[in-house]
Amino acid sequence: MFFLATDWATISSFVTGAGTLVLAVATFAAVRSSNRAARIAEAALQEQRRPVLAPSRLDDPVQKLMFVDEHWISAAGGRAAAEHVDGSVYLGISLRNVGSGIGICQGWTVRAGFGTSRTMPTHAALDEFRLQTRDLYVPAGDIGMWQGALRNPDDPVRTATVEAIDARQPITIELLYSDQVGLQRTITRFGLVSTADSWLASVTRHWHLDWEGPRPETGIRAAVDTVHRDWEAAERQAAAVEDVAAGAEADGAAAHAGVTETGGPHATEQPGPLLPGQTATE
User: Fold this and answer.
1) Residue among 157, 165, 169, 79 at smallest CA distance from 111
2) DSSP letters along 145-205, please?
3) Confidence of residue 1 (pLDDT cuts 50, 70, 90)
C-alpha cells in the first residue's frame, strides 16, 4: 500500500532540487576558490613588475647625463647633483631600483627645504608634477639616473631652488614613476643634503597611488604623532633642566656677591696689632 501511495514525481523533483542545490554550492565554492587563485596570481604578477626606486649604493659607479642644452652633470653612488649655472638649475639623482620590475620615470617636483612627515605629510598634488621629456628607464636590481632642469626665470620654484643651492640648504625632490606598462604608479620622496663637495641623496617616503601599500597612511601618521610627542617632551625636559641650571648659577652668583660685601676672602685687609715704636698713623 505504501508503494502504491507514493508520489514518485514529487520525490523525483525533490531529489533533483537537492542535487541542483549541492551542485550550486559546489560551483560557488569552485568559483570563489578560482577567484582567490586569480587574485593571488595577479598580485604575484604585479610584484614581479613592481619597481621601487632608492638612492644607489655608495660604492656604485659614477653616472653622467647630458641635458638638451649640452650641459653635463654627474653623480657618484648614493649622491645627487644640484647645480645653478647661468640662471638654469640642473638636478640629478643616482638611483638604484630595488624592486623586481623596470621603473619608468613619469614626472617630478622639487621644493626647497628638507621634507619630513611633519612638515610635508603628503606628497605634492599630481598636477604639480613636471612631466619627463626624456625616457628614463631604471632596470630592476640595477642603477640608473634621474634628471630634471628649471630654466624659466619667472618660475618661483626655480627661484627658491636657486637660493637653496647657493646657500647649500637641503632640497626635496619627489619622483613619480610606474612599471613598464604604466601601472603601479608610485611617488618616492628624496632628500638632498649638501656635504663639503657633493650632495647626498636619501629616501624618506613611498606613496603607492593605485593601492594602499604595505604601510597604511593612518598608521604612519600615528607613528609620526608619537615621535613628535616624544620630541616635544624631550624639549620640555631639556628646557626645564636649563632653567634649573640657570637658577642655580644665579643663586651662586648672588651668594658670592653677598660674601664679598660682608667681608670674605676678597674683603679689605684689616690692620694688625701695632709694633713697639709704631703709631696708628704709620
Assistant:
1) 157
2) EEEEEE--TT-HHHHHHHHHHHTT--EEEEEEEE-TTS-S-EEEEEEEEE-SSSEEEEEEE
3) very low
Task: Flag whether 9 is in a domain.
Answer: no
Spatial separation of the C-alpha atoms in residues 137 and 41, rounded to whole Å: 26
- Specify whether 130 is located in the same domain as 23: no
Name, in order, each residue with C-beta under 8 angstroms of 239's C-beta and a sequence gap of 6 or more. none
Range of the domain at 35: 16-49
Exposed, middle or buried by CB within 10 Å (0-12, 13-18, 19+), for 138?
Answer: buried
CATH number of 178's domain? 2.60.40
The answer to whether the CB of 84 falls within 8 A of the CB of 162 is: yes
Report whether 73 contacts 64 (CB < 8 A): yes
Total number of domains constituting the chain = 3
Q: What is the sign of the dihedral through the CA atoms of 36, 37, 42 and 48?
A: positive
- The reply to whether 277 falls in a domain is no
Question: Cell triple for residue 108?
Answer: 617630478
- The predicted-structure confidence for 211-261, as pLDDT tens digits, reads as follows 877 777 777 778 878 887 887 889 888 888 888 888 778 777 777 776 665
Ramachandran bin of 263, using left for φ above 0, alpha for ψ from -120 to 50, beta for the remaining angles? left
Of all helices (H) and strands (E), which one includes residue 237?
A: helix 217-262
State the greatest distance between any 2 C-alpha atoms of the chain, in Å, as a whole number: 163
Answer with the one of 189, 214, 239 that is the final residue of a domain: 214
> Are 124 and 207 part of one and the same domain?
yes
Rounded-to-integer distance, Cα 94 and Cα 89, Å: 17
